[in-house]
Amino acid sequence: MPTNALDVSDLTVAYKEKPVLWDIDLTVPPAVLLAVIGPNGAGKTTLIKSILGLIPTVAGSVRIYGRPYKEQRKQVAYVPQRGTVDWDFPTSVLDVVTMGLYGTLGWLKRPGKKEKKLAMEALEMVAMQDYAHRQISQLSGGQQQRVFLARALVQQAEIYFMDEPFQGVDAMTEKAILRLLKDLRSAGKTVIVVHHDLQTVPEYFDWVTLLNTRLVANGPMEEVFTEANLEKAYGGRFMQLKATARALP
Amino acid sequence: MFSPQVEIMLIASVVAVACAIVGVFLVLRSMAMMSDAISHSVLLGIVLAFFLTRDLASPALIIGAAVMGLITVFLVEMLHQTRLVYEDAAIGIVFPLLFSIAVILISRHAANIHLDTDAVLLGELAFAPFDRFIYQGVDLGPKALYIMGAILMVNIFFITIFFKELKIVTFDPQLAAVLGISPVVVHYALMSLVSITAVGAFDAVGSILVVALMIAPPATAYLLTDRLHIMIGLSALLGVASALGGYAMAHYLDASIAGSMATVAGLIFAIAFLFAPGRGLLSVAKRRVEQRWNFALVTLAIHLWHREKLSPVVGNAYAIQELRQHLRWSSTYFTSVMERALKQGLIAKRDQYVQLTEEGRNLAREGQGF
């Protein structure tokens, strides 16, 4: 039996004794493109952050390709939400992408020609090579997102965690990002995406995790992305969404 | 060794560079006021270490100060993390408390020794050359120069070796943590440097000038460059310029050296704030004016282009008088827009008629997003 890309068991996370995630059990096979969906405050970002060890957990364990996260750092790439960094920081696009390699370089060693070349290749994959030497504050939202993506690609990881990569990008960038994610999956990588737009879920993804502080459902798209499950996760809000959708021409 | 004047300038320059290069990271991490907190609360560390050792020359004083600097940072963060107070309020609560405990301790128990609160705030650079480093009867120069020189070396060494780590932790601490570069370790290492630098520097220049030298040069450099390593180098240069310029000013005005240096640091910032290419107030204003004119030109081009397509006339020439009525612009504004359009070759004019050139048509197409 092949190892799962991700095993989460009994994961509970709390902010100051107020639980945000309750006893999550989650297994994800390799080479899927997974959407983490759920209403606001469902704990989607928290789930990713706690898997990556950015938030302390109250209970439970996380395994990535069968081993604890700390041993698997090099297999993991993370694309945080764009708004979490200061885009006025004095640095270039190429430099930001090179940061993706700081982990493999380890302490003390400096990025050299080889790292620059890898970063350049990653920029080409997101069609941003012409912007390599731009100051990052000169980028549009979509371009910033591509740079973040390139920074993850350069790590050549096995599993990718992305927090709302489609947030606030133009239609062209959205398509380009989607193509990239599908390419990653075809190459056997596992891609886990926090996603907001329910409409595009069936088109973009092949695996779904439905979350609302508890795990509502987790599995292949056609099994999990059902009205019954969505109602369980979104409750009344989903009924409203549906009513609105029906009212529209 | 040198004349006292040269020694003072040398000490001031070394202090300025040591402060500026760690200050860069404080500015970029929006922690500028932490330098204020640390540079004051280190006094308590010095006093406590003095009570333990009873020796003002003991290196334990620097260690005590550095530890107190870290305690300050820790207390501020703890207070802030309760989410009951904002970070700036937490700073405002922690350091005056620690500082005043130090002041009370000094006035109660150490009034007769050289731990003068005025000197703490303003320093006395003019007296720095009197305190000599004498080894086996040989005068090797002022002690402050050696202490600050050593601190500067430590700072340069740390920032060079951990440049990559400092950069990623400052820019994206979450990514750093995911990649296994602990933001907490880097953060406290940096805060230790700030503390040690503050102790060394405030002995020479006082705690107010420490803040000025840590924040003003990096804030100025931030306006002048968009590369981190250049920002660090530039901050060092601007720090030296503030130190030397301030010394000259103090000499000329016969005023406080520390005060003059802080003033010059502020003046240099003001100059960059107004005139920095790209980010200064002036070039922002200039850009805005240019944008306004450009917008007017695009409006004109699109209007003419539409008329060409909707009501074509022979030669696509339109009466200037009529154009002005359509656009409803004041005649002076209309005249200057027309002049600009002519000069840029967007329109051609013959008698009282104008027509769009190919260039003008391109601008109209671009303006409409074609």
From TrEMBL, chain A:
Residue ranges of the TM segments: none
Q: What are the record keywords, sorted? A: ATP-binding, Nucleotide-binding, Transport
Against InterPro entries, the record matches this protein to:
AAA+_ATPase (IPR003593), ABC_transporter-like_ATP-bd (IPR003439), ABC_transporter-like_CS (IPR017871), Metal_Ion_Import_ABC (IPR050153), P-loop_NTPase (IPR027417)
CDD domains reported for this sequence: ABC_Metallic_Cations
One matching Pfam family, short form? ABC_tran
Gene Ontology molecular function: any one: ATP binding
Annotated ranges, domain ABC transporter: 6-238
Annotated family: Belongs to the ABC transporter superfamily.
- Sorted alphabetically, which PANTHER family does this protein's record hold? IRON TRANSPORT SYSTEM ATP-BINDING PROTEIN HI_0361-RELATED, METAL TRANSPORT SYSTEM ATP-BINDING PROTEIN TM_0124-RELATED
This protein is called: Metal ABC transporter ATP-binding protein
Q: Per the UniProt entry, what species is this protein from, by scientific name?
A: Heliorestis acidaminivorans
UniProtKB/TrEMBL annotation, chain B:
Keyword set, alphabetical order: Cell membrane, Membrane, Transmembrane, Transmembrane helix, Transport
Q: Where in the cell is it found?
A: Cell membrane
Q: What is its main location?
A: membrane
Is Membrane one of the keywords? yes
UniProt topology in membrane:
Multi-pass membrane protein
- Kindly give the CDD domains that the UniProt entry links to this protein: TM_ABC_iron-siderophores_like (cd06550)
What biological-process terms (Gene Ontology) are attached?
A: response to zinc ion; transmembrane transport
SUPFAM superfamilies according to UniProt: ABC transporter involved in vitamin B12 uptake, BtuC
Membrane-spanning residues: 6-28, 37-54, 60-79, 91-111, 144-163, 175-198, 204-224, 231-250, 256-278
Family label: Belongs to the ABC-3 integral membrane protein family.
Protein name according to UniProt: Metal ABC transporter permease
Q: Could you tell me which species this protein originates from?
A: Heliorestis acidaminivorans
